[in-house]
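As a warm-up, study this chain.
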Amino acid sequence: MHWRDTLPDWYIKKYGYQPCINIGTAGHVDHGKTSLIQALTGSWTSVHSQELKRGITIRVGYSDAAFYKCKKCEEPLGYSTTPKCNNCGGESELSRVVSFVDSPGHESLMANMLSGSALMDGALLLVAANEKVPKPQTKEHLLALQTLGIQQIGVLQNKVDLLSYDEVLANYKDITKFVKGTNAVKSPIIPISAQSGLNIDALIGAIESTIKTPERDEKADPVMHVLRSFDVNKPGIKLKDIKGGVIGGSLTQGIFNVGDEIEIKPGIMNEKKKSYEPILTEITSLGTAAGIVESVKPGGLVAIGTKLDPSMTRSDSFIGSVIGKPGTLPDNSTLLKLDVNLFDSAVGTTEDIKVNPIQTGELLRLNIGTAPVLGKVTKAKSSNVEIELRRPACIFENGHVAISRRIAERWRLIGAGIVG
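Now compare it with the structure written out below.
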């Protein structure tokens, strides 16, 4: 039975036929993020061919799960992902439907992780119990979540089945020291084994009590950040059967309906004018994990069918774009003004490298929403920085921007900024 068939009327009225919240997974490449999502949802989010060959997450993946709570069992024993209680076999009630965002943990794919973070309402930080705390990417991911304004964080101590009780306890103490002074300092640290499904009920209980569904403004102008775009047509398809390009992402506010006219920014390059121009098109279909729907709200991955030439949306060419109603989005801009807060040291490196102040003329990588963009610093005075972007972006005032600097042939996270 699909979770869509178990949705009560109160849930449908409030959230529609889709998840109500996006929860990310973060942490080192080998600490079990994708295995955790499989344990919770039954789906393996690494489906791209290169992901399967290399055994790592490359693109940001989505997978959904419905959480149920037993009417009889005490917490956390009564939590599960099925309408029938795993503990007593009794009837359970739907708590909510959650969409998990599986972000890459490998250091060379940090830009993809930051793009996924832009759509997270909360996050789970995985730390392997059988490795030293923290790994460079674990530290980098936690700081990335903080810089992008994610307050709701749960900490998972994974692979506890591989160690003795005393070893797990010593690792727990190391994790406690690591999260001190961060957004995760008051978060529960849940011991689990994603591979064997150990303590999953306690994990669900912790998620339900720690990571709350944010209040959404459905009357606000819709805003959707794009993480995927593709051509769904198979080779050799007849001309009359060709479907328009599909764009995937998640709404942060508002509602989209089939038939709505939409605007995509920054759009595409006009070769004659040598500038980017927004694209106007129409929503022809809306797809979610629950199937084809007539309208979508914030929460979960949404696939928007359009009237665009499918060749335009191939190979994730629209990643980083923003979609809204015509005339409601900020103008395209190549000038970015930031109020910057730098870390004491660069993260993601094995050695401690001090972060020097940003200098006029240096090249930085900025993550603006789901868009990674290179920019050259044109003015740097105290914490106020102005950057000329290599390509235009749709920039929202007061938005969070992650800042990376080239250090030892890698882009390393050095701080964050608030758009001024």
